Amino acid sequence: MDLCGGQPLRLSSPKFKTLYLVRHAQGIHNVVLEEKGKINGIGDANLSPRLLDAPLSPKGIQQVSEHRKQILESGLLNTIELVITSPLRRAMETAVGIFRGHKDINLSDNFPPIVALELCRERMGLYPCDRRESISTCRTWFPEIDFTMVESDEDALWREEKRENLEEVSARGLRFLKWLWERPEKEIAVVNHGIFLQQTLCALHEKVSIPLQDNLLTRFANCELRSIRIDKSDMEAVTRTTYNCRENVAPTSSSLHKLE
């Protein structure tokens, strides 16, 4: 597992925060993309129900198992204080599989809590793979995940006729980083999606002028982990940067949110 950018410096100062960014493992929609080229080129409406809130493929499940072993060997499971996941099924399967999984020998039951958050989901609209299931259904699938920060049971953000543009995704990404900064935890894992992760990091680099290594700005592979460290000056720069962002993806006030 490649921790791109080098091993992050671990500091206890509140001026720093380390983020471990993970793209979900391979989903069944990724398989379709590889076979057909692009979702809107499939031409078979019967595939839409199959791609709704796409779960992991068999290869994706294997990727999760392999990366969990690497996380255990690295000691990160004992370091990470909080896991934030997109509420899309492929991300939640990845988050639970890597950061919970099956009970391991000599491993403490003191797992980091896993919290679902709409703000960090994949680019929204048009494609059924990016439309989530109801939260009531997700709770039955993932009892390990805290869904209290997701306000709507049904997916109120996905639009069938229009896809979120990349500027909106970048704006959401920076708002998400500000939300993370306000949390008390210092070492946080984030499990979400390729477009969201890349747009967020590119916005930090290009819009906010925070220097990042080139290997942090490329598209994440499935189940790839990269780490970054953000500090107070970074977040002050983000705050000074103005974006137009969809208001309906703002999270509940969360700096004082008590995890269940």
TrEMBL record:
Q: Which Pfam families does this chain map to?
A: His_Phos_1
InterPro entries on file: His_Pase_superF_clade-1 (IPR013078), His_PPase_superfam (IPR029033), PGM_Phosphatase (IPR050275)
Q: Where are the transmembrane segments?
A: none
Top-level taxon:
Eukaryota
SMART domains for this protein: PGAM
Family indicated by similarity? Belongs to the phosphoglycerate mutase family.
Which protein are we looking at? Phosphoglycerate mutase-like protein 1
Q: Which organism is it from?
A: Brassica cretica (Mustard)
